[in-house]
Amino acid sequence: MSAEFEHINDARSFIVEKLSENSLLGRGGYMMRNALYVLDYKPEQEPYARDLVRAICESDLPARSVRPLVVNLYDIVLAFLDEQGMWEPLVEAEPDASREELIMMLQDTVSVRDVIAPAVNAAIEDNPDADIVFITGVGETYPYVRTHTLLQEMSATKPVVLVFPGRFERRSDGSTSLNILNLDQGTTGGYYRATRVFDL
Description:
Layout: H1 12-19, H2 22-25, E1 36-41, H3 46-63, E2 68-72, H4 73-83, H5 87-93, H6 99-109, H7 112-125, E3 132-136, H8 147-153, E4 160-170, E5 176-180, E6 195-196
């Protein structure tokens, strides 16, 4: 049965308790569930969710001897564009390009499979002492970073929590959908291996 909270701040104790369980963290050599989780929240609560994740990662989990790692997708995108010398051209193109054209440029430039997922996987590999990984910046990188594509490309061997502004829904036919910003993604939002944190 799912836990329901009107406000993401009300869920703090629940989230900390569930994400510090030994079985979820794979302590003792066996991970009880699939290692991919979605922490969804109402998009209008974004500032609160951001502060909550920071507090959980900086205070609550370390107090339980859990070492979290936070990977921000938006930071990855900005770093890549800067490294490739593409940030300025994109900024210059913005006034004359439509929203759709900008999205296409970003999708062509910052591929989830070729850029984002490898960077996320590398960040996890570079922090072997981390017990659990939080992926943030999902809303800031939508729609040119597709969350379900990223999850399919994940190769982490430790729990990964996608901090998600929207709804993670399980349909009557058993399929699931990641509906970012509460926009129904239909079949394009389908993802089947992740577990909603509030369903733990």
